[in-house]
Amino acid sequence: MNKKYDPLLHEDDYDSLMDMQSEVMEWWYEMYDELEPVFLWENGCPNFHEEYGQRQPSLAFLPYHGETPPKGVVLVSAGGGFTYKSHHEGNCVAARFAQDGYLGAVLDYRVRPYTQYDILNDVRRAVRLLKSLAPSYGYPKDNIALLGFSAGGQVSLLGGTHFDDGNPNSPDPVERFSSRPGAVVSCYSSISWTLFAPDKNMDELGSISSFEDRLFFSSEHNLSADTPPIFIWTSRQDLVLDPRFSLNLAIRLYEHNLPFELHVYDEGAHGIGLADDTNILKEYSSHHLNTWVSLCSEWLDEKFSR
């Protein structure tokens, strides 16, 4: 078995990873297949390995029933530790933002044993594809928000910190578009590979085991004057991902004089999604936690109206 993709993944770990992914991803695709996915690369994505047992990366739109054209797109990336994707952080989230006049979409990005570089390519390509499809769906092409939970939040932040202007000479028309999103929404995300016990959970790092790579994939170290506005929310009682990840990102954004909004709820478990009846952790759902959605939607309205 060729394990060059992940130098920290042992053979027995690989087998157990494949077994767990297969079971959990069945739940994901039962949800995702209610939609009509669009492959990110029409002719197959780069560095795709059929032996990993995953599908080609894609995105899918939720039905839009608004009487006016969509104000923009909210592209949702579910969490799952880069190992799977949580179904309660997918379609239902995109559908909720569709109620507020946005075209909701879900990103089916690649997970381990693919590398962080592959995942970054997926989210970049997704933004380009959404910009290319803007005339067909009627939304402003620059009003694209990347919204993600936990690991999916880091995927969204990667898209918001490692974008480019596109290649105007590419034979692929999608590649001619910029990959810069108009906004990023970070929901209880890890954000950094260097903060708060950086040697902990090394097996989760996989292909980013070098310190240089860990800096590259830590969003707080990759801010620039062109970084899009970022909405951040987390809870003080998150026992999985230290809320200081979010606090530190907010401090870095402040130091760079970049636009952001931060909400730290006092209570709330990790993985609560919308914090309503769609949440698998129903005992942690609450009306107060669910206010993050309306706060975020209002924030997007403000940013996209400028």
TrEMBL record:
Alphabetically ordered keywords of this record: Hydrolase
Gene3D superfamilies: alpha/beta hydrolase
Record keyword Amino-acid biosynthesis present: no
A Pfam family matched in the record: BD-FAE
Keyword Glycoprotein: no
Top-rank taxon: Bacteria
GO molecular function: hydrolase activity
Limits of the BD-FAE-like domain: 62-198
PANTHER family registered for this protein in UniProt: AB HYDROLASE SUPERFAMILY PROTEIN C4A8.06C, PEPTIDASE S9 PROLYL OLIGOPEPTIDASE CATALYTIC DOMAIN-CONTAINING PROTEIN
Protein name: Alpha/beta hydrolase
